[in-house]
Write a structure and sequence with these properties.
single chain; 6-stranded parallel β-sheet; two-stranded antiparallel sheet; globular; binds zinc ion
Length: 241
Amino acid sequence: MNIPVIFYHKIDKPAADSLVRGGFTPPRRFAVQMAYLKKSGFVFYTASELIEHFKQHGVFPENGLAITLDDGWQDNYTNAFPVLRQLGIKATVFSIPSVIGEMSTKAAAKGEGPRAHLSRDQILEMADCGIEFGSHSLNHRYLPELTSGEVKLEVEEAKNQIEQLTQKPCLTFAYPAGYVSDEAKEIIRAAGHTAAFTTIYGPTDTIDLYALNRTEVLRRDRFLFQFARKVKPLQQSSSVS
Ligand SMILES: [Zn+2]
């Protein structure tokens, strides 16, 4: 079964000094991709809505898709949000509460300097317009390298702070850099999240709600046919179980 969730990082052109450029999707290309999804008949769910549907029905919704963005970069507001709002597309941002409103390297790729994250006001405006905010941990530390006390803090405090800000439940989690551990899974579940996402790609035989695969859209998906080929397997009919 394919998990109908795609993810992005930065919706921007790479900076001149960016060594790792895979996480950048240029704004115009993002707009073309979103228009394509809409035209292809996808139905858009936030991450928590998609999971809720799965828990109730044992399958993902027909043509359902969740678009997710990791790290909460400010370009998500300036470059992605106008497109999503105009097309009426729901999405989910996995935010790092300790860097809200700041320039930070906590989630930066190798060699990258500080980069702006979403401000509180931007998050509130987006949350008002169909964008869901999930957790990407408090500090974007790699959970398998931490003590259980540290993992608890990263998970519980992030959820708390996001809920305080948005005044909405923070139900889903994305692992920093995709690093999962059994202990982290259990702590995330116990904290009240309904699901957690990795960065692993491809179909799975069984569904582990606390280690869900996602399909990454990369800078090298330059042409629309490449993007189309990537999202096609995620489009499920009601007969798929
Ligand atoms: Zn990240």
